[in-house]
Specification:
With 815 residues, this protein is mainly alpha-helical. Helices cover 58% and strands 6% of the residues. The strands form 4 sheets. It has a 4-stranded antiparallel beta sheet with strand order 2-3-1-4. Helix 7 runs antiparallel to helix 8, helix 16 packs parallel to helix 20 and helix 20 packs antiparallel against helix 21. The structure holds 2-acetamido-2-deoxy-beta-D-glucopyranose (NAG) (2 copies). One 2-acetamido-2-deoxy-beta-D-glucopyranose binds next to strand 9. InterPro entries: Anoct_dimer (IPR032394), Anoctamin (IPR007632), Anoctamin_TM (IPR049452).
Length: 815
């Protein structure tokens, strides 16, 4: 025994006596010290221990808080935190192989004894106290967060359990602190294929962050099937493309494609053959199999959401959080900024906002949002114009590779805009919500979330909606010499391939830039700062105390997770909105998520100060957003198949052939029309013009009386397309609602557990009532019953007859 007795390394931040552990740190500057006396006195009055340290590298002062365990336990009862029993018997995923688990999946971190609060629970309790502590004599002079707003405090943050990475990492797991265990097994890229230890995260960071990672984990598991299937679909497409009518019929013709030119100089006619690659890739992403894939995947969103609901209910029961623990009262910023009025109901002076003011604020905030969205859309238009101009300028030099080069440049520009606007609107949505000034914190949070998401939505998806539904339906016969119509379209084929390649590049570049930003932004900032201010280098590289090290980390705010979540939900949209155009998107999003998830973990665990844990019951308003995306995806996929893609045309061509119309020799003959170049002035001025050229469209030929007007098959094709959209949408919606109905929201283990809990609670209550009654010396209910007068013997008052009859009747029914 004695041989193994290693000294347990001491983790965490301690008072000077080396015994009392500090849980929270308040930072302030010397001058305001006199204002803090009341706060200190009030905290000490509650039994808090306080110790002030001078900063080593800054002129700030650090006030450390320690609370003895017995006081914390009393407070935990009062606030109902950390007392809920965690139930660990509810693991639905025991069937996965061990290589997908880390030691953290089985071990609920350092052992929890009853009445032993985790550091997370301790922080939650202290935070509750700090939120309501009085620091002055006026009634609204409460909460340390208020003091930060009034510049009496610099900042307040909870302390970690220790350093994330240090020399003790070499010791066996049982000597590590929780943060180090999380760094080793969770915030670690070599764990990319392992399951996420949500229980351990919940224990250390609280439910809010744990729900986020649980959702991401669920999302990733859901992506496995579409990824594999999507890759197979693409491989199938590549294998069959060459023989398909959609490719073969075009390239075997000696047709000239009607040039789309804007200047005489580069107006050259090419053979349809030279567009082989375009036809090929469009077929790969747009054929019968991809449509089948889209139909199968149309239930993916609903199934995923239902599986998440089940998982969520397990987690709720497991962690004992079934309600949001938010402030119920009005926000302090709200009370400050509004008028006060006497309320006859509560007989108190209450905060009051005239309705017209509320409306004005709303309108203002919404209009700023709309302006932002238009700016985002303008940026998209800017990128498109840049691409067109670049293309015109470069065609002479780059020839065939122009399109690829221009597309990549366009994607890089787009990613720059997405990232740049992203930085702006995170703050913007908070500022705008401040103007709106909602009364309750919950409304405030969801307002920030919706605005942030709306802007992110416009920012991320606008280019793709443009390609799919503007550029994609932009077909015209020669003769309309409008810059945009002539230049920005995907003729002679469809835009599906364009959409797919753009998606691929943007997803990849975004991740690349994101990774670089996370890994290199803070070090670069530091270097920049030192260069800028010519700061003297540290003379002695002595180690700073833990509180000061953590003070130097990036500050966290309430919306740290909101922006991460927004990013993930945007990824969800990339997958589900564009199934029909981009079967491989799920694979790349999966890769991206695996990386992003570890990166988020690393950020939270190592780069940021410890976030304030929050007791929430789920992912909140995101559930609604995800549901909305799922519905929207039905529409976008229907339109992608029906409008942007060409599968419906293959089908209607096949039907024509099968009915032996033989009106069309080939598929190319069906979808393309002939144009006499003499009929267009512009073409006449160009050298080497062929006599006829072909363009995409089902129009009459030059010989016909009604030259170039719409031909019969066009309407046939349009009808088929509309029918496809209608049928797809209705079928999917119906099927999804049936599925939502079939899959139960509560797994059996949760139902059993809830029933058991209810029963136990009832029994405990009855027991308590009985004990109370015995203590107060009252006769027991049943005893009294026995001592009642015997009505049948004519003692006492006569029973009401109606009751009697009713009882008899009931008995009769029962028999
Ligand atoms: C990450 O995991 C690997 C493999 O288990 C381990 O060797 C490494 O030390 C871990 N990294 C950190 C920072 O703990
Ligand atoms: C397609 O073939 C038919 C039948 O030979 C012919 O009348 C029609 O002009 C052709 N269309 C085109 C665009 O070549």
């Amino acid at each position: 025994m004695a041989k193994h007795k290693k000294k347990r390394p001491k983790h965490g931040c301690y008072f000077r006596d080396g015994k009392r552990m500090a849980y929270f740190c308040l930072v302030y500057i010397e001058e305001v010290e006199s204002f803090l006396e009341t706060l200190k006195k009030n905290l000490q009055g509650l039994g808090f221990h306080i110790e002030v340290h001078d900063g080593k590298k800054t002129d700030k002062k650090f006030m450390l808080l320690h609370v003895p365990d017995d006081i914390l336990l009393d407070l935990s009862e009062a606030y109902d935190i950390g007392v809920a029993e965690k139930k660990l018997g509810l693991d639905g995923r025991r069937w996965t192989h061990n290589i997908f688990h880390t030691p953290l999946s089985h071990m609920y971190m350092s052992e929890t004894k009853k009445g032993n609060l985790t550091s997370c629970a301790k922080i939650m309790i202290i935070q509750k106290v700090l939120e309501s502590i009085q620091f002055g004599s006026e009634t609204h002079a409460r909460s340390v967060y208020r003091m930060i707003e009034m510049n009496l405090l610099d900042t307040v943050f909870p302390l970690h359990d220790g350093y994330p990475i240090d020399e003790t990492m070499k010791l066996p797991d049982k000597y590590l602190n929780d943060r180090q265990l999380l760094t080793k097994y969770w915030a670690n890229f070599s764990m990319w294929y392992k399951s996420v230890p949500t229980d351990a995260i919940e224990r250390y960071y609280g439910p809010e962050i744990a729900y986020y990672f649980a959702w991401v984990h669920n999302f990733n598991l859901m992506l496995i099937i579409p990824s594999i299937m999507g890759l197979l679909v693409v491989i199938f497409g590549i294998a069959t493309a060459h023989q398909s009518v959609a490719v073969h019929d075009f390239i075997e013709k000696n047709w000239m494609f009607c040039a789309r030119c804007f200047r005489y100089r580069d107006c050259k006619f090419h053979q349809l053959k030279s567009y082989y690659k375009l036809f090929f890739w469009n077929y790969v992403f747009d054929n019968y199999i991809t449509v089948t894939y889209t139909i199968i995947m149309s239930v993916w969103g609903t199934v995923g959401m239902n599986l998440w609901k089940r998982e969520w209910h397990i987690l709720q029961v497991k962690w004992g959080v079934t309600f949001d623990d938010d402030e119920i009262g009005a926000r302090s910023a709200y009370i400050d900024r509004v008028m006060k009025k006497y309320d006859p109901r509560t007989k108190k002076i209450e905060a009051y906002v005239p309705r017209i003011e509320n409306v004005m604020r709303m309108v203002f905030s919404i209009s700023i949002c709309l302006v932002m969205i238009s700016v985002v859309i303008l940026a998209v238009v800017g990128v498109i114009t840049t691409k067109l101009l670049l293309k015109m300028a470069l065609t002479e030099y780059l020839h065939d590779s122009t399109t690829t080069f221009v597309m990549i440049v366009g994607c890089i520009l787009q990613v720059c805009f997405i990232k740049g606007f992203g930085e702006i609107y995170e703050n913007l949505s908070i500022r705008l919500t401040d103007i709106e000034n909602p009364k309750h914190q919950r409304d405030y949070d969801s307002s920030v979330l919706y605005k942030g998401y709306l802007l992110a939505f416009a920012n991320n998806y606008a280019p793709f909606f443009y390609i799919a539904f503007v550029k994609g339906i932009n077909f015209s016969q020669p003769g309309t010499n409008n810059f945009f119509i002539q230049q920005d379209n995907c003729q002679p084929s469809t835009c599906i391939g364009d959409l797919a390649t753009n998606l691929f590049f943007i997803i990849t570049f975004k991740r690349l830039v994101g990774n670089l930003l996370v890994l290199f932004k803070p070090p670069l900032k530091k270097i920049f700062k030192t260069l800028l201010f010519f700061k003297k280098k540290q003379i002695a590289e002595e180690r700073l105390p833990q509180y000061e090290t953590e003070y130097n980390l990036l500050p966290t705010n309430r919306y740290l997770l909101t922006s991460e979540f927004c990013e993930m939900v945007i990824n969800y949209g990339f997958v589900s909105l564009f199934f029909a155009a981009c079967p491989f998107a799920s694979f790349f999003i999966l890769l991206n998520n695996l990386m992003e998830q570890r990166l988020d973990a690393y950020k939270i665990n190592v780069r940021f100060r410890r976030p304030l844990p929050r007791n929430v019951s789920g992912i909140g308003a995101w559930d609604g957003v995800i549901l909305g995306i799922t519905y929207l995806s039905t529409a976008t996929n229907a339109f992608l198949i029906g409008i942007t893609g060409d599968v419906v045309s293959y089908a209607s061509y096949a039907i024509n052939q099968w009915e032996q119309h033989y009106r069309y020799r080939s598929y190319a003959n069906y979808t393309m029309s002939r144009f006499k170049t003499e009929d267009f002035d512009f073409y006449r001025k160009v050298n080497n013009t062929p006599e006829y050229c072909y363009y995409r469209g089902m129009r009459l030929g030059p010989e016909d009386e009604k030259k170039y007007s719409i031909d019969g098959p066009y309407w046939e094709d349009v009808t088929w397309r509309l029918i496809t959209i209608f049928v797809f949408e209705h079928f999917v919606l119906m099927f999804n609602s049936v599925l939502g109905f079939i899959i139960p929201d509560y797994p059996k283990c949760v139902k059993d557990q809830l029933n058991l809990d209810r029963q136990l609670a009832k029994e405990a209550k009855l027991l308590m009532l009985k004990e109370e009654r015995e203590e107060s010396g009252q006769p027991d209910e049943w005893e009294r019953y026995d001592k009642r007068p015997d009505f049948s013997k004519g003692e006492g008052p006569i029973r009401p007859s109606l009751l009697n009859v009713k009882n008899q009747w009931n008995e009769h029914i029962l028999i």
